[in-house]
UniProtKB/TrEMBL annotation:
InterPro entries listed in its UniProt record: UDG_Type-4/5 (IPR051536), Ura-DNA_glyco_family4 (IPR005273), Uracil-DNA_glycosylase-like (IPR005122), Uracil-DNA_glycosylase-like_sf (IPR036895)
Taxonomic classification: Bacteria, Bacillati, Actinomycetota, Actinomycetes, Mycobacteriales
Keyword terms, alphabetized: 4Fe-4S, DNA damage, DNA repair, Hydrolase, Iron, Iron-sulfur, Metal-binding
Name used for this protein in its record: Type-4 uracil-DNA glycosylase
Gene Ontology MF: a single term: 4 iron, 4 sulfur cluster binding
Family affiliation: Belongs to the uracil-DNA glycosylase (UDG) superfamily. Type 4 (UDGa) family.
Biological process, per Gene Ontology: DNA repair
Source domain of life: Bacteria
Length: 200
């Protein structure tokens, strides 16, 4: 399973977005409402990568518009980062969920889906060519740094990769679930301040 057959070579973001809506590179398209492609300026210096769209994103069709997105917005403001200057996307572009009654419960994407969806992320990165990539959570971090990366140990560390520098922090949803939300939020802000400083 891979999206690679659906990704047009040398395409701009708009062409990629249109092509992505036809993606059948894994099975997640079968149950999701729509693909949620990345959003933001095509010349952004910073790309932020989440895990996968949530329930709200699946309905609206844009990344980070639900509860995690609201937390991220607030944190970005507090850290002095302008969201409109950031290209936001996800490691996996369809919502994976399990139906329980009327509710759709988020399910973590598996290795197969993450690997299958990777060509879209690579295509986005090769168009945007960011200076800094920010991984929100373990799925994004392992996609960018490899499977042995541990966010708990290496969060906030700016690491030079071949085409850009990259840094990982926790996923905003993890803050919403944290036993001590305030402390988790403060640590998240500290990581985002590192991002801002790295961009100066
Ligand atoms: N969580 C993510 O990882 N991405 C979104 O777009 C929304 C919630």
């Amino acid at each position: 399973m891979s999206a690679s057959a659906y990704v047009p070579a040398g395409a701009d973001l708009e062409t990629l977005r249109k092509a992505a809506s036809e993606c059948r590179g894994c099975d997640l398209y079968r149950h999701a409402t729509q693909i949620v492609f990345g959003a933001g300026p095509g010349d952004a210096r910073v790309v932020m990568i989440g895990e996968q769209p949530g329930d709200r994103e699946d309905v609206v069709g844009h990344p980070f518009v639900g509860p995690a997105g609201r937390l991220l917005n607030r944190a970005l403001v507090e850290a002095g980062i302008d969201r409109s200057m950031v290209y936001l996307t996800n490691a996996v572009k369809h919502f994976k969920f399990e139906e329980r009654g009327k509710r759709r419960i988020h399910q973590q994407p598996g290795r197969t889906e993450i690997v299958a969806c990777r060509p879209w992320l690579e295509a986005e990165l090769s168009v945007v060519r960011p200076e800094l990539v920010v991984c929100l959570g373990a799925v994004a971090a392992q996609t960018v740094f490899g499977p042995s990366f541990r966010v708990t140990r290496q969060r906030g560390e700016v690491i030079a990769l071949e085409d850009y520098r990259a840094v990982a922090t926790v996923h905003p949803s993890a803050i919403l679930r944290a036993p001590d939300r305030e402390a988790a939020y403060e640590e998240f802000i500290a990581d985002l301040r590192t991002v801002r400083t790295a961009m100066e």
